[in-house]
């Protein structure tokens, strides 16, 4: 079960890194001075990436909990 725990921890860290990337990308878009339509398009991409990163992180945490419960 150690493999499940470590794989889950790695997935969680990848997801957290993705969330940090989303924050940086949104701040960069905010500073770029885009018009309303451009800002909306850029933030829609960030929302999609944010959702994926959150899902990966949640999957990793589930793997960690399952590894602890089974071990």
From TrEMBL:
Q: What is this protein called?
A: Uncharacterized protein
Keywords from the UniProt entry: Membrane, Transmembrane, Transmembrane helix
Annotated TM spans:
6-26, 47-70
């Amino acid at each position: 079960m150690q493999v499940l725990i470590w794989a889950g921890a790695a997935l969680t860290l990848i997801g957290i890194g993705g969330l940090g990337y989303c924050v940086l990308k949104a701040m960069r878009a905010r500073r770029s001075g885009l018009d309303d339509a451009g800002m909306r398009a850029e933030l829609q991409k960030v929302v999609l990436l944010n959702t994926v990163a959150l899902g990966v992180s949640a999957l990793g945490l589930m793997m960690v909990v399952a590894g602890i419960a089974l071990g």
